[in-house]
Amino acid sequence: MFIFNGGHVMRGVHPEFLSKYAELNYNSNFDKLWLNYWKKPGDENNPDIAPAFISAASGNISDIYNAAHKFVQKADYIKLRDISLSYNFPSKWIAPTKLSYIRLTGQVLNAWRWAANKENLDPEAWVGYTTATSTNISGPSRGVTAPVIYNLGVSVGF
Fold first, then answer.
1. Higher-confidence residue: 149 or 24?
2. How many CA atoms lie within 13 A of 26 on its CB side?
3. Which residues 6+ apart lie within 8 Å of 147 measured at CB?
4. Which distant-in-sequence residues (6+ apart) come within 8 Å of 101 by Cβ?
5. Which tens digit of pLDDT belongs to each residue from 115-146?
6. CA distance 117 to 111
């Protein structure tokens, strides 16, 4: 079973606009892509890498930066959600027994995924950024993608 969703967009990972008071000691979890920011002097002046720290800047400044169109990206994806295969043993093999059938079934769930965005974020799991205070989300989260699951089953009829 394949599933495809296309034609919509989402906000991807973007640098955090550091604008609070320095004495607050940022202690949030940051995305792993942030390890690529500010590699050499002058990078802090390039808004495509990450903006420079501005102490006590207005929230309007960071909101404008976070809402920039450059952070919008495709959220199309294709997933192979389910592969199932069953085998019914031939009746001549089970005729000597008191069984009417034996079926062996194998299944793989969440076998493969492709996402159109450059960070390979799963649009179904990516939480992204929020300014809503009514949620328990305190920042970005790549979410929990569905794990690959293997099932093996045997059906026996009497």
1. 149
2. 14
3. 110
4. 88, 89, 91, 94, 155, 156, 157
5. 998 888 888 888 765 444 434 444 556 778 88
6. 19
